[in-house]
Every structure is written in C-alpha cells, then in structure tokens.
Amino acid sequence: MALIFFRTIFIFIATLIVMRLMGKRQIGEMQPYELVITLIIADLACIPMADNSIPLLYGVIAILTVYLLHQIICLIDLNSSFAKAVVSGIPSVVLNKNGIDDAELKKNNLDVADLIESLRVEGYFALDGVEYALYEAEGTFSALPKKDYQELQSSLPLLLIDEGKFDEKNVAYTQKDKSYYLDILKAQGCKNLKKVLVMTVDGKGKVYLQQKGEKYRVFELGWTQQLW
C-alpha cells in the first residue's frame, strides 16, 4: 500500500510538471492535438500508478516522450502556416452577409440547429441580427452582431424548417399549421420544401428564410398582433 502511495505521488508530480511546461493554453482552449496529448498523458500516468510490476521510470520516460512530441508540434505549428492549418485546423465562417454557409457547417459536422443554439448562448436570437459568425479552430464560437441587432430581435424567433424538415412542435406553437407555411413558401417562389435550408418566424410575424445555395431574405407576414 505504501509503495502505491509513493508511486502515485511521484507520477502526480511528474505529470504536473509536464503539464505546466506545456503552457497555459494546454489548460484553457486546447487545439485538437493538445487534447490528444493530454488524454495520452493521463492514460500513461495511470498505468505505473496502478501496476507495481511496471518500473516507475518507464512511465516517466513515456510521459516525457509525449511532452517532446508536443514541443516539436508546437515548433512546427509556430513556423509553418500550412502545418498549422493541417494540425490545428482553421476558423470556419458559418454565417456571413449572404446568410448561413451550409457547406462550412457540414465540414464541422454541425447543422442549422447547432448554429442557432451557439448564437443563443452568445445572446443573439435573430439570424438577421448577426453580420458574421464563426467557429474557431479549437471549437469556440464567435459572432459579430449588426449595429441595430437589438431592434432586430425584439421577439423570440422559432425554428420552423431545418434543412427541409418542419419542426412540428414549433409549428404548433405558432398556432398555425404546415399548410399555412407551405403557402408562404410558394408565394416566395419556393415550391420544394427540401430546398429550404432554414426558416424561422418570431412572435411579430417576421420571417427569416434561406434556400440552399441562395442568399437569405427577411419579410413580414402582416400579423395584427404579437403571438408570443
């Protein structure tokens, strides 16, 4: 028992030193390769702590080897923009002046609902209230609002159509039915539901509509009262 106790303390100290040497970003916003290295170090540290048959030195050497790999990758990352893009990735602009970039979303294994959720977390509820939105290489989300974005999101927008499919719950919440919104789509020149990338409507009847491969449009339904 005492041996395991002292081995654990030794491995803990060695791991702590290595993690501190990797820098503050290792603890904060990690790049993909840094996350992989962190997971490997955690696994390597557990093995010699739990198994007395493995020499303590083996665990330390393995951890130091991973640290050396980290330093080499960091060096390459800092001196080559191409290597940085390959190893760490690049930011993805998923919303621009034309609307949602569906291709960029798919590159990051995301959909429209994920984007809307990220925007809400940042305090932006109306898609037309944001000029640009992007996911950084390490996964954090950033958005640049329009100057008058507070006026553009005076009512909560509901996601009615997400990549060609109705959200039944949200449609019912608007006190309308699908045929009502299908008629609106036809009036806007959209005859194929599957071509609709996103459609939202707020309580005042403001609609955000974007078809795949096209620029978004915003229009009013002319509701006489605010529904929610």
**Compute the gyration radius: what is it?**
25 Å
Number of helices: 9
What is the residue-mean pLDDT, rounded to a whole number?
86
The arrangement of helices and strands along the chain is: HHHHEEHHEEHEEHHEEE
- Estimate the strand proportion: 15-25%
Oligomer type: single chain
Helix share, percent: 40-55%
Basic shape:
elongated
End-to-end span in angstroms?
64 Å
Low-confidence stretches: none
Number of strands: 9
For the biggest β-sheet, the strand order reads 6-5-7-8-9
Summing up helix and strand content along with how strands pair, one would put the structural category as alpha+beta
Main sheet summary: 5 strands, antiparallel
Give a quick rundown of the structure.
The chain is an alpha+beta fold. Helix content is 47%, strand content 18%. The strands form two sheets. Strands 6-5-7-8-9 form a five-stranded antiparallel beta sheet. Strands 2-1-3-4 form a four-stranded antiparallel beta sheet.
